[in-house]
Amino acid sequence: MSAAEVRDVLTAYAEVLVARGDYARFFSDDVHFEVMGTDQVADGPEAAEQAIRFLHEVAFDANPEIVNLVADDHGAAAEAIFAGTHISDFAGIPATGTAVRVPYSVVYDVAEGRISALRIYMSLESLVARISTPAKAAAAS
Fold first, then answer.
1. Residues 6+ apart with CB under 8 A from 28
2. Is 106:118 a contact under the CB 8 Å cutoff?
3. Closest Cα to residue 84, out of 73, 66, 98?
4. Which terminal Cβ of the chain has fewer Cβ within 10 Å, N or C?
5. What is the side-by-side order of every strand in the sheet holding 27-35?
6. Do the Cβ atoms of 117 and 32 come closer than 8 Å?
7. Residue 101 backbone phi and psi in degrees, to 5
8. Which of 45, 83, 43, 41 is nearest to 66 (CA)?
C-alpha cells in the first residue's frame, strides 16, 4: 500500500470511530490491540472493538482528537488527545463525572487495506490521577 492509501484507511477509521459506528470493519481478522506497558491486550476484530468501546463509550464518554497523523507504506502513527468524561467504573474508580484530556499516541500496522495492529501509548497513571482527584483534574484542564 502507498502512504496515501494507509492515510486514507486511518482517516476513514477515525471518522467511524468518532461516529461510534462499525469500526471493526477496518480490522484484519488477526488484529492485535495493546495498551503498551499494561496487560491490556485484545486479539481479533470483536475483542479489539470491545476494548476500544470500553474506553470511549463505557468507562468514558470520550472521543479522540487527532493532532497529527504520519503514514508510510506499512502503517501510521497518530498523536491525539483522549477527551471525555468519566461515566462509569475505570480502574476500580466509580464514575466521577470528571472531564479529562490526556495526550496519547497510537501506532497502527496496516496491510491490504486493514488495520492489523494498534499499539496505544498512554499514561494510564495520568488518566487515573485525573479521575481520582476531580478538583485537581478540573484545575489542570
1. 45, 111, 112, 114, 115, 116
2. yes
3. 98
4. C
5. 41-43, 27-35, 114-122, 99-111, 75-86, 60-71
6. yes
7. -140, 105
8. 83
